[in-house]
């Protein structure tokens, strides 16, 4: 059984598992750690296969594998119940886990999330995007530029460098294909787990609160939304005190 690597912070009796997005790894949360409630909580910052401290772990890099790996981590940690957080790409994994482990997931936090339908686009556009990522044809640079117009070049260079170095190219391409191809929306509809969604007012339009709220509410009856007015796609980096306060509440 493959064991994902993770960073453990805190000594509390309650446990939260935090997962990362496509263009970063567990270090996305580093700026928030000083403001977390490490007395009451133990935080598990996990890296998926091909990313961060799990970069050397090979795999198929599929949706099913990602879900299975987190389930194995829950077993390894001996968790009877836990809090779960997914960011962007991993919000898909978090939603599926909340369904499969309904009796164990106390509350679900979705940060700048993807709907359980995945991200839909025409097959030709999807294939072009995957080809551009495979050939490293400025996909990362274009995304960072679009999402960072108010920030300086130091931030943009940091994001671009992390996106290129945090993972293997194989993992990056496969995980993008995962969230462009996954749809479990009919299966999960009606899940009543408590869910908190955190969006950034300065994120790309597809991730704005108004864009997500009505569509997510079609699937989950026990869901609430919080908007970070000073953040884009990375509230844990851009507004770490606010981010940590939201999950602490």
TrEMBL record:
Coiled-coil features, chain-numbered ranges: none
Protein origin, superkingdom: Bacteria
SUPFAM superfamilies: alpha/beta-Hydrolases (SSF53474)
InterPro entries reported for this sequence: AB_hydrolase_1 (IPR000073), AB_hydrolase_fold (IPR029058), AB_hydrolase_sf (IPR050266)
Keywords assigned: Hydrolase
Molecular function, one GO term: hydrolase activity
PANTHER family tied to this protein: MONOACYLGLYCEROL LIPASE
Protein name per Swiss-Prot or TrEMBL: Alpha/beta hydrolase family protein
Lineage: Bacteria, Pseudomonadati, Campylobacterota, Epsilonproteobacteria, Campylobacterales
